[in-house]
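look at this record:
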Amino acid sequence: MAPVEPSGLYDFDLLVIGGGSGGLACAKEASSFGKQVVVLDFVIPSEKGTTWGIGGTCVNVGCIPKKLMHQASLLGESIQEAQSYGWNISGPISFNWESLVEAVQNHIKSVNWVTRVQLRDKKIEYVNGHGVFEDAHTVIAKMKNGKERRITAKDIVIAVGGRPRYPDFPGCKEYCITSDDLFSLPTSPGNTLVIGAGYIGLECAGFLKGLGYEATVMVRSMLLRGFDRGMVDLVQAEMEDKGVKFLFGKIPVKVSKQPNGKLLVEWKGDDEIGQGEYDTVLVATGRKALSEELNPSAAGLQIHPETYKIITNFEQTNIPNIYAVGDVLHERPELTPVAIQAGKLLAGRLYNGTQEQMDYDNVATTVFSPLEYGCVGITEEEAINRYTENEIEVYHAYYKPTEFFIPQKNVKHCYLKVITLLKAPQKVLGMHFIGPQAGEVIQGYAAAIKAGLTYQHLKDTVGIHPTVSEEFTRVAITKRSGDDPTPQSCCS
């Protein structure tokens, strides 16, 4: 469909600020409805000078390179296990960081190119400029060469996401890297300290250890805040068994470079001080929304004073023609598929007469730790707070993946739980799974929960044997009973 001409009052029907997953999804959907669309995208270099092409965090410095490096780590483990299965591995097994980075970056560049081609094919104009508001309908695009372009649009969608937040201590910006830098790091990271214990920090520490590097995680208070605490304890135990070290209750106070080239990290905690030398220090202490860079006051936008995120009502800001999707939204999940779905639905409401709103409840996610943790719905703690212990039932089980038997892999942290209402038909409130391919396992159950899954449905479902996902259909022991949730055999 050829795009129609925009209203004579404006240059475009829709201007999208941010070329990440959510912004691009909204732009392409709007274009399919015949609207004239322009996308602004500009990456300010990190403190280490790292930059990248169109596609946003997920493609360039987030989900995609993270999953590829996680896979590289798992492959190294699989090579060792293959010998137990009869494969003859001749010669020493070694790993080359530079080769992995080159392969990952080549894939990312191919995605950048495909994205540019898609925009061209859909007649969406792409402007490699940093957008700032002049007013509610006008954005000034500041180009790399110093030139500026003034662009007007009837509607504006903010999809700028966020960037890693640097803690405030001497030497942090000078010597530390973030996830913005890790996936294109030209030389191997060596012995690495990860400051921060959210999912980004744990995932990076996990795959670095799997690739053969020493990895230590500095934890201020707790791992994986917001996730089910029982499951998190198992993730931690598995990572410790794999050799990842943890420094609990510690706060960094200074990083300095030593004559030998190593980084000396000083920390405090529990009325004591300590220090250690590392080759690389990765800070993963959260992300900051990029809303402030937009000059939001010029458009009259309401920004949350603490998170600096944009406050919206179904993606609409306090300014009627300005909308926002993705990680820049206040109190919304910071997940790529959420941004994509919200962007598509927003374009449908704006330009195709639909009424469907984004459903932010029961969004599944996975932490790609060495033994993965996937979940959908609420945690056990949330269920207790919302319904009390007397109104919920928690089914749980340890299990033994068949593929773990021959190489004699540790199965003691393979565990799942199903949280339901106690009253029949026992609606499922949350499902949590630690084990291989957790993301693949939990995805199907996420659809089931959206459809109103009950415990009776799980009991009535015949599992595919032998798979790890079937364990959800076999779970029968409740925490309330006090019975041992450990199976006697794989087919019990």
Remarks:
- The longest strand covers residues 148-158.
- The chain has a mean pLDDT of 96.
- The CA atoms of residues 426 and 454 lie 5 Å apart.
- The radius of gyration is 24 Å.
